[in-house]
Amino acid sequence: GQQVMQIPQYQHVQEGEDFTTYCNSSTTLSNIQWYKQRPGGHPVFLIQLVKSGEVKKQKRLTFQFGEAKKNSSLHITATQTTDVGTYFCAGRGAGGTSYGKLTFGQGTILTVHP
Amino acid sequence: DSGVTQTPKHLITATGQRVTLRCSPRSGDLSVYWYQQSLDQGLQFLIQYYNGEERAKGNILERFSAQQFPDLHSELNLSSLELGDSALYFCASSVAGTPDTQYFGPGTRLTVL
Question: Which of A77, A111, B87, B93 has its CA 20 to 30 A from that of B18?
Fold first, then answer.
């Protein structure tokens, strides 16, 4: 079945440093979603990427979808303590996978030291 | 607050028991999804309902079942509980037409002793 790998598993940064998490799928994706889960909270939808090579920005966050639609990245510039949490990617496989059936990566746990 | 509600917040029960988790989707959302989140397995898709009909299934155990009612709320039934079923169970909902953009509820933490 489809697998989505996410690295790194953990990232500790000093406030103000940049952070990047990478997501790789074993199969081509129709789209990819990114979620953030604060400690003790629930996943919160951040963004959806659909097109090959797509880049989207949300303030200090930059999301990319690879040309082959098998990988994606989330980059945070100048981290703040409010960025703490686990960042998940979630993809739906191309080629007939049911709409809404997402495969989640294991997540990257981001810690920001003030 | 996503607008998705889940009850109860916490549930503690014993092995072999049966529990029911409840979810109300956001107003207007027809799809409901159930996920299991455990430390070693991450977020696992269990099952999806759309307007009362089962739409997609993930790695849901036979001991688990779900349904979506005419008022669109959904219930996840877990039976013959085992220690390994201890996890966070999330419900999510989505707007018709954008099924992959899912909004998660606060979750139910199930502890099986």
Answer: B93
